[in-house]
Design goal:
This protein is of the alpha/beta class. Helix content is about 45%, strand content about 15%. The strands form 2 sheets. Strands 1-4-6-5-7-8-9-10 form an 8-stranded mixed beta sheet, with helices on both faces.
């Protein structure tokens, strides 16, 4: 399995951009971000619309190619910006990262992309949305640069990942108590992770629970372990993220989106964090029919929730 395919479960000619083309569709730009060319897609028919920048999950995955499935309502209200991060999607095809990605590098890239988008679209502030891993990057911006944001949308966010992985492991052990192979592999998992196989077994049986039977194949195993050569050091850094301890107050509006059936990033942990977080404005949207991929599971409700916050902001 290709690295990009694995990452998706963990969560064209390049043209210059010109402002205000009434019939503009998608424009791909390749600014230099963090020392390499990175691909930024801008979709708009009016650059005066507020900007919404998506931070993909993964790490190592891309929302760009599937974005039309969850932006058909948003496109009428926002200038939509997708970014393929370092070693992901179109950016990976254009130029692999010359060094192994680190969390600090990814956070720096995120800030540079926001500054590029603000300058390109002549917007003082933007709306920012993080999906899963993308929230590690997004909450770093919320912490350090809240003045750049109208609001932040945290979709199935990484909040306290060590506790979330421990909760996931226990849930899977219960689910697969009668499955000898699963029980043996899950019993070998160490948290914090000591080897790439620890994370592999945890995600393997999570995906199997979700109906992805091919995760028992050698092809999936080899693809995952190839992905982990690049990204497991970053994910091990993510395991130290504990927002209830380190980020108790923010200076921009924050809206949480949680899937009732999400066990990859604990819904319970996210709701508890929402309750203690102090913010100028905050809200929590629950999605009863969603797991970890709200934007795919309930795309219309997902978009309507975002539009709702926009409508309240302009009243």
């Amino acid at each position: 399995m290709k690295k990009s395919s694995v990452a998706a479960f963990l969560f064209a000619v390049l043209l210059p951009f010109h402002a205000c083309h009434a019939q503009s569709a998608a424009t791909l730009l390749t600014p230099e971000i963090g020392g390499i060319k990175q691909v930024v897609e801008i979709k708009t028919n009016d650059t005066s619309k507020p900007v919404l920048l998506f931070l993909s999950g993964g790490p190592g995955s891309s929302m760009m190619n599937t974005s039309s499935a969850f932006t058909n309502i948003l496109k009428d209200r926002f200038t939509l910006v997708q970014w393929d991060q370092r070693d992901a999607g179109k950016t990976l095809k254009l130029n692999p990262s010359p060094t192994q990605p680190t969390l600090a590098q990814m956070e720096s890239d995120t800030y540079e992309v926001i500054e590029f988008v603000r300058k390109e679209l002549k917007q003082e502030k933007i709306y920012l949305l993080g999906s899963s891993w993308g929230n590690v990057l997004g909450f770093d911006i919320v912490r350090k640069h809240p003045g750049l944001l109208h609001a932040y949308f945290a979709v199935n966010p990484v909040v306290s990942q060590l506790a979330s992985e421990q909760e996931l492991l226990q849930a899977l052990k219960v689910t697969f108590a009668d499955n000898a192979d699963a029980s043996k592999e899950l019993a070998s998992v160490n948290i914090p992770f000591k080897t790439d196989e620890d994370l592999f077994y945890l995600r393997k049986w999570l995906f199997y629970k979700e109906g992805k039977k091919y995760v028992t194949s050698n092809e999936f195993r080899n693809g995952f372990l190839q992905w982990s050569k690049v990204w497991s050091p970053v994910w091990n850094q993510v395991m130290a993220v504990d927002l209830p301890r380190t980020l108790k107050q923010v200076d921009c509006p924050v809206y949480f989106f949680v899937g009732k059936n999400d066990i990859q990033t604990s819904t319970r942990i996210t709701k508890e964090y929402f309750e203690i977080l102090r913010a100028p404005k905050k809200g929590l949207f629950a999605f009863e029919n969603s797991g970890h991929q709200i934007h795919h599971d309930e795309p219309e409700k997902f978009q309507q929730a975002i539009v709702q916050t926009l409508d309240k902001a302009v009243r």
